[in-house]
Specification:
The complex is a heterodimer of chains A (245) and B (250).
Chain A lengths: L1 E4 L3 E7 L2 H5 L6 E8 L2 E9 L6 H18 L5 H21 L8 H13 L2 E10 L8 E8 L3 E6 L2 E2 L13 E3 L3 E3 L4 E7 L5 E6 L15 H9 L10 E7 L1
Antiparallel strand pairs in A: 1-2, 2-13, 3-4, 4-5, 5-6, 5-9, 6-11, 7-8, 7-12, 9-10, 12-13
Helix pairs in contact in A: 2-3
Chain B lengths: L12 E8 L7 E2 L2 E2 H18 L2 E2 L2 E2 L3 E8 L3 E3 L5 E2 H7 L13 H15 L10 E6 L9 H9 L1 E2 L2 E2 L1 E6 L27 H8 L6 H9 L11 E3 L3 H11 L6
Parallel strand pairs in B: 1-6, 1-9, 9-12, 12-13
Antiparallel strand pairs in B: 2-3, 4-5, 6-7, 6-8, 10-11
Helix pairs in contact in B: 1-2, 1-7, 3-4
The chains are: A alpha+beta (245), B alpha/beta (250).
Chain lengths: 245, 250
């Protein structure tokens, strides 16, 4: 668990599935945030394990979205959708450069090649927080997502996550082959009524033990979940990002 | 007890196939021998398990499989339980050669012994599944009491599941014209054949988690459907084998 304190306080943690640790493999989640004075942008991607190399999709998508969130003055759903399609071109080049191990058993090779043709997939949550400034009387929050990664918001002690609606669906994701899958990206945006007292939390479904927890979770408790000693390690990759301002 | 534990390398699913290789499996279905239809469907199910077990470029052994072919005797085609990675390394399944009779009680009995050995070590794993494929009346003892004992065995995830695929043209009163739209056999679905009614009594209810997996694959089975498939065409036989591999995975 790591904490960064500037105008925003960010806590983040990342853990690989026990299976990946055992095999010395990289995780399939990708998480990033950047604080630029009064603006914080962030992304959390969960590579789809059943797709071909979910780590490739989550990393490529995550980097692409971070760049896009930085480059856009005004964020919008149509612009995001265009970006998600645009990213498929780069992703397809990347996918073509990957090869299936020729020494793998024939059945495995055939399945991997079939998966490669179907593309790599990732779910994502991303957004930008703009604090009030000389040019903005009120702060602004812009969020977008596809998939079942969790996104929760508190104002003071009150969780106000229902404002995002029941729009977190496992069947929705980004595909390196076809862009948004299962529907268009979901977007939530608002002016921030208060200058401070917000807590925005996001985590991949590997940390679903956090779902019932409404109170702020101490760092060491998050670490306990990451260590997952009760199950002999994490069953899935897990990433956690919390931004307070 | 809700069949939600996911098959993983640490908690693999165990599937035991019981395949009838009696002489009648030489009969034709859609211009192929029934045994060949079954072989193809089983191979496809194995491929599906490989598909659901790959992460990155690696095959993680999320499934463990035993294949028992039976006639008047039981033949352990894989020589014990094998991981899906070992089966993929072999490349293809052993041949299924039809023989004479159809003593399913012997096959269920052997499956029971396997489960008695395995279940103590499977407490964190998905509930095991026995998938029985037959095309006719059992010629040996009544298999139902053994199947019932198997269905009463359990792990914390749920009771052992028993699925039956019955290849027959005389099972349903109405033909199934669109397998993908078919709602499945429900507890009150009338069946034309006495043996089919017995197999129905030996079939578990389809767990919701399995049903969701099948819905994702565009099959419209109803809540409450039984794990019983009438093998009136190759697609239904294939759905049956796909059902056996629908253990939840991440």
């Amino acid at each position: 668990m790591t904490r960064v304190e500037e105008q925003f306080i960010c806590r983040y943690a990342y853990g690989r599935a026990a299976e990946s640790v055992m095999m010395s493999e990289r995780g399939q989640d990708f998480m990033a945030f950047a604080i630029d004075r009064d603006v914080c942008r962030f992304v959390l991607c969960d590579g789809v394990g059943l797709s071909y190399r979910g780590d490739v999709a989550s990393q490529l998508l995550g980097r692409g979205l971070m760049g896009w969130l930085h480059s856009q003055d005004e964020l919008s759903q149509p612009a995001l959708e265009r970006k998600l399609f645009e990213l498929t071109q780069e992703a397809e080049r990347e996918m073509r450069s990957l090869s299936v191990d020729a020494k793998a058993p024939k059945l495995l090779r055939e399945v991997l090649e079939e998966k490669q043709r179907m593309g790599s997939e990732a779910m994502y949550v991303c957004g930008r927080i703009e604090l009030p400034s000389r040019f903005r009387r009120k702060g602004r929050l812009w969020l977008a997502w596809q998939g079942d990664s969790r996104l929760r918001l508190w104002q003071g002690q009150h969780e106000i996550s229902p404002i995002f609606g029941d729009r977190f669906r496992t069947a929705e994701r980004w595909s390196s082959k076809s862009g948004p899958v299962g529907g268009k990206p979901h977007v939530y945006q608002c002016r921030l009524e208060h200058d401070s007292g917000y807590r925005l939390q996001m985590y991949s479904d590997g940390l679903n033990d956090l779902d019932p927890m409404k109170e702020p979770i101490p760092d060491d408790q998050v670490q306990v979940l990451m260590n997952a000693l009760h199950t002999g390690g994490l069953e899935d990759d897990a990433s956690f990002l919390e931004i307070m301002w | 007890m809700n069949y939600t534990i996911q098959a993983s390398q640490r908690t693999p699913a165990l599937i035991i196939y019981l395949i009838d290789i009696s002489a009648s499996m030489n009969m034709l279905m859609e211009d192929k021998r029934r045994i060949d239809v079954v072989y193809e469907a089983l191979s496809l199910a194995i491929r599906q398990m490989v598909f659901r077990s790959t992460k990155g470029n690696r095959l993680t052994p999320r499934y463990r499989i035993a294949i028992l072919a039976y006639s008047d005797d039981v033949y352990d085609l894989l020589g014990g339980i094998k991981g899906i990675d070992e089966i993929a390394a072999i490349g293809s399944l052993p041949d299924l050669t039809p023989k004479r009779f159809s003593d399913s009680a012997k096959a269920f009995s052997q499956a029971e012994k396997i489960l008695q050995m395995e279940i103590p070590n499977m407490q964190d794993c998905p509930a095991p599944l026995v998938c029985h494929m037959t095309d006719g009346v059992s010629t040996g003892e009544d298999p139902e009491p053994i199947a019932r004992r198997i269905m009463s065995m359990s792990v914390p995830d749920g009771n052992v599941l028993v699925e039956n695929i019955f290849i027959s043209d005389h099972l349903m009163s109405q033909p199934i014209t669109e397998p993908r739209r078919w709602k499945g056999i429900l507890p009150d679905t009338p069946l034309e054949d006495e043996h089919a009614r017995k197999l129905k009594m030996m079939s578990s209810a389809l767990p919701e988690s399995y049903r969701e997996m099948l819905v994702e694959a565009d099959y419209q089975l109803s809540p409450g459907a039984l794990m019983m498939l009438p093998g009136t065409c190759s697609e239904l036989v294939s759905i049956g084998f796909q059902m056996s591999a629908a253990t939840p995975v991440r």
